[in-house]
Design a protein that fits this description.
13 strands; six-stranded parallel β-sheet; alpha/beta; 2 domains; three-stranded parallel β-sheet
């Protein structure tokens, strides 16, 4: 039986990854925060061992792990939204935690390490070199992701470990309660409000959560070490087209408030978002198209009302 360690195992991506791994023959060591209220997401799942460890204690975790593993998924990250994204201390700590995770992977005999990269790293590389004031304090999160990426890549070479840092685009789906774009627009439409949006002319790629989990597993099983993988659907189109499609599924007679906000973010290119390496190296293809994913997600939100 293949064996995997997953940090951040009760997070939106993490708990779906754990379920996908178990359903495909893995034994999983799920590492979660002490006293996590989300432990219920993983309880009573066969072949899942749950251990409570704060990210700051990862460097000592091997003392209580009495088995060897094959692959290490490091999805744990503090401060992924809100004010914590711009908290320098929190984000700098995440870099150290990522390196500690690599040490734990080495100590538990994992031969492959998969980190939790973000497409926002590419945004940061576009935005930060500009010869102008860096007003977007959210770049603290993006910069920390980049730093963790590069430090871990260096350490992987030192430890002679196969290394992957896939960049996740925009995931959505059942089980996420955040105020991210898809959730926010769905909830406003369900409640009869007109969402206030930008012109939404920037390119986007959305991918459903179960496809995200499967992509991580495919990378672990079939990926080529150090290759750059973008986890996305491969359908790169203007955000406006996605949102109109979402509206037509959730509430066809509604209107969308395009242009009510000014977009001050980064414009990505098709080249930035394409996921050809992922499909070429692993054979990955999405199983849940956007229209089906939105239908499922909207039905879930309606049940929550």
């Amino acid at each position: 039986m293949k064996k995997a360690i997953v940090t951040g195992a009760t997070g939106f991506v993490g708990h779906h990854l754990v379920k996908d791994l178990v359903n495909n023959g893995y034994k999983v060591l799920a590492m979660i925060r002490p006293d996590s209220k989300n432990i219920v997401k993983l309880q009573n799942i066969a072949n899942v061992e749950i251990v409570e460890y704060d990210l700051s204690a990862l460097k000592d975790a091997s003392r209580k792990i009495n088995d060897n593993y094959d692959v290490f998924f490091h999805l744990g990250w503090e401060g992924v939204s809100g004010e914590k994204q711009s908290n320098y201390d929190i984000q700098i700590s995440n870099i150290k935690f990522s390196l500690d995770a690599m040490d734990l992977a080495y100590q538990t005999k994992c031969t492959r390490f998969i980190g939790a990269g973000s497409i926002q790293e590419k945004e940061c590389l576009i935005e930060m070199p500009k010869e102008q004031e860096a007003k977007n304090q959210g770049n603290a999160y993006k910069t920390a992701k980049l730093a963790a990426h590069f430090f871990c890549k260096l350490k992987a070479s030192k430890l002679n470990m196969e290394f992957f840092w896939p960049l996740l685009t925009n995931t959505y789906g059942i089980g996420e309660l955040s105020n991210r774009l898809v959730n926010n627009v769905i909830r406003q439409l369900i409640n009869g409000h007109e969402p206030a949006l930008t012109k939404a002319d920037q390119l986007y790629d959305f991918i459903y959560i179960t496809d995200v989990a499967r992509a991580y597993r495919y990378i672990a099983e079939k990926g080529k070490s150090y290759n750059q993988y973008v986890i996305g659907s491969g359908r790169v189109i203007p955000l406006k087209d996605y949102l109109v499609e979402l509206k037509d599924i959730v509430k066809p007679d509604a209107t969308l408030g395009f242009g009510r906000h000014i977009y001050s973010g980064v414009y990505m290119s098709i080249e930035d978002l394409k996921n050809e390496n992922l499909s070429k190296d692993t054979g990955f293809k999405i199983e849940v198209p956007f229209n089906e994913g939105i239908r499922l997600t909207a039905e879930w939100h309606r049940r929550l009302k």
